[in-house]
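Archive record:
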Amino acid sequence: MHTFWAKGYYDTSIRDLVTATGVNPYGLYATFTDKRGLFLAALDHYQATVTSAIGQALEQPDGGIEAIGKAFDHVLRITRDTQGHSGCLMCMTAVELAPHDATAADRVAANMTRLRDAFLGAVRRAQRKGEIDPKKDAEALAEFLATSVYSIGMLRRAGRNSAYVNRYVQTALEGLA
C-alpha cells in the first residue's frame, strides 16, 4: 500500500513491490494474479485502515464539531509526507485510474461513501447539540467534508505547505457554524 501511495499505480513497478514486500515476483503473482490485483488489495487495505481510522474519530457517540475537528487533525497527519508519500491514495486513484478502470472507480466511490456516512453522523450529532444550525442540509455538509478529505490529499500531493493546508481546513470547519 505504501509503495503505491508513494509512487502511484503506473509509476510502481513489480521490482518496487518485490523490494517493498520482500516477496519474489512469483509469490506476488500467485497471490494477486497481477500488479492490478495487488493494487486493488492495497486500496481495500487503505479503506480498512486509513479510512476506518478517520471514521472512528467521527463516530464517537458524543462527538459533533469536536469529532469533526479530530478527524481532520488525523487527515492532516496521515497526508503529510512521513513515509515517502504524501496525499491520499484514494485521491490519487480517483485521478489516475478511476476515469478508465471501473473497479478502481468503485473502490474510490465506496471510500467516499464511507467518509460521507461517517461525516453525516457527526454533522447530525453536532446539529442535535446546537453546534451546527439544524436548518443546514446535513447531507450536503457531509458531502462537502468528505470531499474536503480528498482535497487535502490533493493539496498535500501538489506540495502545498502545511500553513496553506491548515488554512483550508480551518475555513472548511468555520463554514459549518
